[in-house]
Amino acid sequence: MSSSLKAHISLFLAQVIYALNYSIAKDLMPDHIKPLGLVMLRIIGACILFWTVAAFTKKESLAKGDLQKMMLLAIFGVAVNQAFFIYGLSLTKPINSAIIMISNPIAVMLFTIFVFKEKITTLKITGLAFGVIGALTLLLFKGSFALGSETIAGDLMTLVNSLSWAVFVVMAKPYMIKYHTVTVMKWIFLFGGIYMLPFGLPDLLEVQWQSLSTDTILAMVFVVVATTFLAYLLNTYALKALSSSVVSMYIYFQPFLATIIAVMLGKDEITLIKVVSAMLIISGVYLASRKPQAL
After folding, report:
1. What one-character-per-residue DSSP string does 162-210 give?
2. Nearest-CA neighbor of 105 among 291, 281, 292, 295?
3. pLDDT tens digits along 19-67
4. Which of 9, 34, 264, 280 has a CB 3.0–4.6 Å from the CB of 134, allowing a cystine?
């Protein structure tokens, strides 16, 4: 199996996890745990897992100056990204978050153009357009999307999260190529945890663990192990073989996969709109990942 195919499979699996996470994480807040408490739980849990895995892999030393780069990446990839997504999700609707996150691949493409002087290509623009149209069509036909005063704070925080993740995906790629994925992630989560400690620890300490149900505990485990540890691992692993633009394009699969999961659970049904949307999203990712022809 080629490294490119492995990367695509990794990204697809990450999107399945994210599609499940919107509702699971939303249901935890604020009754069981406050938003920043959940962020702290995610970061601490993932940090422990990454450092544990690192203990069983080949030890790597960071080149001079790269530790400082990890400290910077931790701001965008962990602290701001995690805090603004979770807190934003607690203040808005899951569908609002899903639609706003469509801005992420657009931001990634713009950042790669300005930072790495990457050329705009016909295939990338076409693929991006297909993905945007497909995802928006699927989401807007659900009929429950609404921006307003009640959700505006959460919507803006989700947008900050989207832009922060875009910066991380673009800036982290050189280090994902240079080092083992786990090496990068253990340092990023360690620094991210330090940044979030004064904000998230008080909320985490307020959790009444003894009163939590088994389902709630399992939901928290999913958010820590799957949505944080595994999803970060899968996304950053894919950065080794694929461009930042292609990695970010996979976000368009989230509403499609969420729909498929709902259909499997008997909570939704297949319609022509959903089939067309899926075809547009898949075509968009395929076009964006092909070797492009410069304009």
Report:
1. HHHHHHHHHHHHHHHHHS-HHHHHHHHHHHHHHHHHHHHHHHHHT--GG
2. 281
3. 887 667 767 887 889 989 999 999 999 999 999 999 998 888 898 899 9
4. 280
Rounded distance, CA 14 to CA 233, Å? 9
- Alpha-carbon span 187 to 67, nearest angstrom: 8
For residues 37 and 206, the answer to whether their CB atoms sit within 8 Å is: yes
Query: Quick check: 44 and 283 in contact, CB under 8 A?
Result: no
CB count in 10 Å sphere of residue 148: 9
Per this entry, what is the length of the chain?
295
Q: What is the DSSP letter of 121?
A: B
Longest dimension (CA), the chain: 61
Tokens of 253: 């699969």
C-alpha distance from residue 158 to each of 99, 125, 174, 212 (Å): 10, 24, 26, 28
Both tokens of residue 246?
A: 């292609």
Q: What is the pLDDT of residues 56-107, one digit of tens each?
A: 988 888 988 999 999 999 999 999 998 998 888 788 776 677 777 777 888 8
